[in-house]
Amino acid sequence: MSTRKTTVFYAVLIATASIAVGMVIASRLDLAPSSTAQNLSVPATNSAPLGGPIDATTFRSIAKAQIPTVVNIRTESRQRTQDLSDFFGGDDLLQRFFGQQAPGRRPRGRGRQEPPPEQFTAGAGTGFIIDRAGFILTNNHVVEGAETIKISLANAARGVEYSAKVIGRDTLTDVALIQFTEMPAEPLQEAKFGDSSQIQQGDWVMAIGNPFNLGHTVTVGVVSALGRPFGGVAGREQDMLQTDAAINPGNSGGPLLNIRGEVVGVSTAIYTDAQRVANIGIGFATPINTIRDLLPQLRTGKVTRGVMGVQVRRDAITKQEASAFGLPNTNGAVLVIVTPGGPAARAGLDPGDVVVEYGGRPVTDSDSLVNMVVNTKPGMTVPMTIYRDKQRRTVNITVDELDLEAEQGRTARRGGGEPSTPTETGFGLTLEPVTPDIAQQAELPRGQGGGIVVDVERGSAAALGGVQPNDIILKVNGQAVTNISQITRALQNTSQGTPVFLLVWRAGQQVFVTMTKK
């Protein structure tokens, strides 16, 4: 949902490619958090029941009161692009094959290489002020990797911007806390927090943001669904609010407001199909209660979470399964994988165990167990009640600290977070999501890639067409894809005997592949 303009230089090697994205990644950031920033006051939450009439001035009043709290964010970054030497072993193509110096290139001394060309990236997003000291909440993907961050306020003169820096960020919830480094002369207005736990399907909400660089745009809709599992970290999806309030590229990090004008969510992602880049009525926002709980840690520059080293089954326990497990009811979380050497393994837990209590609190389902574990301080020992072989048992587990980078690295080396299952496309492909580590290892252009091929069935249409394991699918029939569902939908809609054109990323370059459905 953040806009991006990318120009790739050195066109001998790489052609500019554009992609329609569902969750638009703006730019990257890894700035060190400041230790001199002022103290942050965590906004109070208004948990009073929502109610009251809605009239012709309701949304007008909300917009007038809350637009001053919303800011537009512009980011800039430079990144290394791939040089010819990356592909041809350290010398230029002309020099290697013809003994000539490439036109416009300076000769290199022995053991010395020219700096590679740079790729300039500009991004835009939205944020909102939560403290008069200049603290702003936005999405992590809006500011991640940015060398410069510029903030513009509502009703400011054209071109008036203020610099900002990152204080803390969290990949899991895609949230970042930033702060002005040069304060505006006028007093800042703070947003107010509502209680996202009170939100129900059908509730009116308003989104304010910067769609397609059209600053401080207001859209209105309702909450379409609650608890949608979504997120940018494979295997650790977060419960999101779904809304039909129009959210478009550039709305990332903007507030989702309730009927009182209080923030109940942060606009984070949109769902798109292969034909349309923009809003189709399915947007996602991170609940503000989740973010509010993280603010003290974001202020310190680091978010820590507990981990017990297991994977739990997402499906609820049925009555028949509860009877087979020996459970008194259908509450509990079934462990499907126990990581060797992890906290759960050290505590003696096994796959197939059902956790029914954690720290004396009942575990209603897998989500409740995950939430309790991640909110446990690393190093703490917690009693757990499990069922194994229809017997109730108690074990003590000492929680470790969650390391997302290491976890995603293990996922990338395994080729995916969960065991591969062939996609029912009729082409003989097995696909898995493109994790951040996979993208980094493959040097995939940012924001591209819908799925990585982990297996190709021998003799299948994909194999005959030349598709290879580790290919990352960028486009299907000329349409950019950003997730596996888009790929499978496009392939499933192909009739027998019809050719399908794929653009894949292979060994650092784009490759065009044609395959025909049998």
Q: What does this entry look like structurally?
A:
By secondary structure, this protein is α+β, with helices and mostly antiparallel strands. It is built from 12 helices and 29 strands. It has 3 domains: 1-81 and 117-303, Thrombin, subunit H; 306-401, PDZ domain (Pdz3 Domain), CATH 2.30.42; 420-516, Roll (Pdz3 Domain), CATH 2.30.42. Helices cover 17% and strands 33% of the residues. The strands form 6 sheets. A 6-stranded antiparallel beta barrel has the order 3-4-5-8-7-6. The protein has a 6-stranded antiparallel barrel with strand order 10-11-12-15-14-13. The chain is globular, with a radius of gyration of 25 Å.
| Broad shape | globular
Q: Helices and strands: which structural class?
A: alpha+beta
Terminal CA distance: 38 Å
Count of domains: 3
Helix content: 10-25%
Approximately what portion of the residues adopt beta-strand conformation? 25-35%
Task: Provide the CATH top-level class of the largest domain.
Answer: Mainly Beta
Give the rounded overall mean pLDDT. 78
Return Rg in Å: 25 Å
Q: What's the architecture of the largest domain, going by CATH?
A: Beta Barrel
Which segments are poorly predicted (pLDDT under 50) over 5 or more consecutive residues? 3-37, 80-113, 410-423
